[in-house]
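INFO  loader      accepted 1 record
INFO  loader      residues=176
INFO  predictor   begin
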Amino acid sequence: MIKTNKDQLLIGLIGDTHMHSQEGDILQKILDNFKEKEIDYLFHVGDFTSYKIYEKLQALFGREKVIGIVGNMDGSKISKELPKKIELDLFGHRIFITHGEGGPDNIIKLLNKRFDLSQYDIIIFGHAHHPFNEKGRDGKLYISPGSPTDKRFTDINSYGYLKISQEKLEPKIIYL
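INFO  predictor   done
INFO  writer      dumping tokens
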């Protein structure tokens, strides 16, 4: 799925875009920022809510560079094309990507209950709309880009980056 000959990758993180016409400018500013930073891949953690957003991301970054998963608010077209979870190995780091489910306050607990995350170093998720960038008591990195457009369950909009190499992980949340 991800092929590279680089020593590190810069991954743009976005999710819960819940796109409606009034947020198009917000998304465009984020995509321009991703282009400017020359991200290697874009991970969308679900809830596109519009297939046109998925197509736009593929047109901007290339089909092979957009890694997406289906969210609970995505329609049947996206649901048929994208998985509910993705497992990756990058530079020796085991990564698990899913949308998430349940209430936002207990999302990390729910993820651990729903999936066996014992073999992963990094868990990337969405659904809660609230950004996360924290090491759990289990030593794993839990990161969620939040939502750039929807303030349900949060008081801030956001997206993120993950710079990854064999030696280190540099997650970053960008607040709008």
